[in-house]
Amino acid sequence: MRTIFIAAALAASTFAGAAHADVTTYVIDPTHTFVSFEVLHFGTSTNRGRFDKKAGSVQLDMESKTGKVELTLDTASINTGTAAFDQHLQSDNFFNAAKFPSAKFVADKFRFNGDKLTEVSGQLSLLGKTNPVLLKATNFNCYLNPVLKREVCGGDFETTILRDQWGMNWGLEYGIPNQIALKIQVEAIKQ
After folding, report:
1. What are the residues facing 140 on neighbouring strands?
2. Other residues' Cβ atoms within 10 Å of the Cβ of residue 140
3. Domain count, the chain
4. pLDDT tens, 160-183?
5. How far apart are alpha carbons 41 and 126 in whole angstroms?
6. d(CA 119, CA 84)
7. Lower CB density within 10 Å: C or N end of the chain?
8. Would 87 be classed as within a structural domain?
9. Is 190 exposed, middle or buried (CB count within 10 Å of its CB: 0-12, 13-18, 19+)?
10. Cα angle at 93 between 185 and 173, to 5 degrees?
11. Cα(126)–Cα(167) distance, integer angstroms
12. Where is the Lipid/polyisoprenoid-binding YceI-like domain (predicted)?
């Protein structure tokens, strides 16, 4: 009888712990998600581009302030608005899209200030190398989408990376900067 009581107590505590975890899964909305970059062009103007094809998911537990993000970019979908520049960026001088068709960001560390998300840190895999990246949240919110009738969470995130950490060295000797500003606007739909 004591064994049955202990087993029942363990099962109840396990169920209570599982019920406490409120992890919600969201799928990245590609029509409201863009990863763009900015780089200074020989100290004059700023070149900008973005990746048109992306997919991923977010798992978020607002109560425990934990989560996980997976975002995959199709490197051949780079779009600067100029076809010749896109082809150069897709070449082995930069993203080598033929050999490395995707880049991936995976994060599992979220920092909050109260209920406000302030940072997401994870790993960016690009050109066969993986390095840590810290994204600062400049905006974050969840809302009930009036068209979808579902919760949507999203925000704006940014960071600056050094491209040579991933072996993207072309043009450094010509004065093309190593520093690349990444700007990520993301919205994800509750599943």
Report:
1. 155
2. 17
3. 1
4. 999 999 999 999 999 999 999 999
5. 22
6. 36
7. N
8. yes
9. middle
10. 100
11. 9
12. 25-189
Check residue 186 and give its pLDDT.
97
Q: Flag whether 154 is in a domain.
A: yes
In a domain, 6, yes or no: no
Q: Could you tell me if residue 1 is inside a domain?
A: no
Quote the pLDDT of residue 4. Answer: 39
Is residue 144 exposed (0-12), middle (13-18) or buried (19+ Cβ within 10 Å)? exposed
Q: Phi/psi at 88 (nearest 5 deg)?
A: -65, -45
pLDDT at res. 14: 38
Task: For residue 102, give the CATH number of its domain.
Answer: 2.40.128.110
Containing H/E element for 7?
helix 2-20
Instruction: Locate 87 and state its tokens.
Output: 């082809």
Strand 24-28 with 54-61, pairing: antiparallel
Q: Which of 167, 163, 71, 78 is nearest to 128 (CA)?
A: 167
Q: Which amino acid is at 184?
A: I
pLDDT at 8 over 80: no
At 57-110, the pLDDT tens digits run: 999 999 999 999 999 999 999 999 999 999 999 999 999 999 999 999 999 999
Q: pLDDT per residue over 108-139, tens digit each? A: 999 999 989 999 999 999 999 999 999 999 99
Domain assignment of residue 142, given as a range:
22-190
Tell me if 136 sits within 8 A of 157, measured CB to CB.
yes
